[in-house]
């Protein structure tokens, strides 16, 4: 790209304003060096110049996938498909791959099949077939499966709620989750996140009552047990907490997001040794998009006596997430979740 020479007449200086392609090239360079947060910033700058550029959106989605922000990645890819579907068939495979990481196996299968159907000789044809083989299962699809448009809306709501929860912006999260519960009553995770936000917004009795009611109706709800463990710990309900810990101690989720939630739950209730064991089993590459990963993993090391590792991990998290720069480590603010 040619750079125009600045006009120096009468002390006037015309600053060089990089165009979208410059930002994009810098984003690619940062991505290749695995500097993902920097890469994201460059790609976002490129998109600010050309908001609907499909290549920019696709490349940014790939970085989001690398750091575990699968919902954000799929939002971008879905937008590209809606506007440029026939020219960007690879988006079907990329979406399928993200859904597989999220544990949404039916959705992953659906998009992988679409890719094989629409692009049988595409760049990812072999990978898509391999993914389908891995995802091959006999579960019947639910009769009331959501339409694609509804799923896209859920992703947007879910990622926005995640944003507020990670930043401990409880009131904003509560308002959004209330909408989700009304619009998507079958998306049960929204209810649990609502109870969690409600508890730390100060409505503790209501949050506990709602979660206990849900658990009574759904006795196998892992999310309920994890929430109640945190609630009972803060309320000093020792007997009930002990019962839940005995259940969680022998539970090992399959999906990475649930594994992370289990690890952070143990950390939040002061069982740092158990939490550390769970954190060590996580796939770090899939969870870089979660500030809570760094927040509670570092906390475990601190309270187990390894302050250097705690501080190193906290600094690494601060490099990945600006929000951590605005916060103190949890061991300095023990009252916060």
Automatic annotation (TrEMBL):
Which SMART domains does the entry link to?
Answer: TPR
Checking Pfam families in the record gives: TPR_19
Going by the UniProt record, its keywords in alphabetical order are: Repeat, TPR repeat
Name the InterPro entries for this protein.
TPR-like_helical_dom_sf, TPR_rpt, Ycf3
Extent of the TPR repeats? 20-53
Name listed for the protein in its UniProt record:
Tetratricopeptide repeat protein
């Amino acid at each position: 790209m040619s750079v125009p020479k600045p006009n120096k007449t009468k002390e006037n200086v015309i600053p060089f304003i990089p165009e979208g392609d410059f930002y994009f090239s810098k984003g690619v360079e940062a991505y290749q060096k695995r500097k993902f947060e920097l890469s994201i910033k460059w790609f976002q700058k490129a998109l600010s110049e050309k908001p609907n550029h499909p290549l920019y959106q696709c490349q940014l989605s790939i970085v989001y996938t690398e750091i575990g922000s699968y919902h954000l990645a799929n939002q971008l890819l879905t937008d590209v498909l809606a506007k440029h579907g026939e020219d960007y068939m690879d988006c079907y495979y990329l979406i399928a791959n993200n859904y597989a990481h999220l544990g949404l196996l039916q959705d992953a299968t659906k998009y992988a099949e679409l890719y094989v159907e629409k692009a049988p000789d595409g760049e990812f044809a072999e990978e898509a077939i391999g993914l389908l083989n891995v995802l091959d299962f006999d579960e019947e699809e639910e009769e009331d499966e959501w339409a694609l448009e509804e799923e896209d809306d859920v992703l947007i709501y879910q990622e926005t709620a995640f944003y507020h929860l990670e930043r401990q912006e409880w009131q904003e999260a509560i308002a959004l989750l209330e909408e989700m519960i009304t619009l998507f009553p079958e998306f049960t995770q929204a209810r649990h996140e609502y109870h969690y936000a409600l508890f730390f917004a100060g409505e503790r009795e209501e949050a506990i009552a709602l979660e206990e009611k849900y658990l009574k109706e759904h006795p196998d709800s892992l999310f309920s047990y994890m929430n109640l463990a945190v609630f009972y710990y803060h309320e000093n309900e020792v007997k009930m907490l002990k019962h839940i810990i005995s259940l969680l101690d022998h539970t090992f989720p399959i999906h990475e997001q649930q594994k992370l939630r289990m690890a952070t739950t143990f950390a939040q209730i002061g069982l740092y040794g158990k939490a550390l064991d769970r954190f060590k089993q996580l796939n770090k590459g899939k969870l870089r998009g979660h500030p809570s990963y760094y927040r509670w993993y570092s906390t475990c090391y601190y309270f187990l006596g390894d302050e250097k590792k705690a501080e190193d991990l906290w600094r690494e998290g601060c490099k990945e997430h600006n929000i951590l720069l605005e916060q103190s480590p949890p061991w300095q603010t023990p009252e916060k979740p």
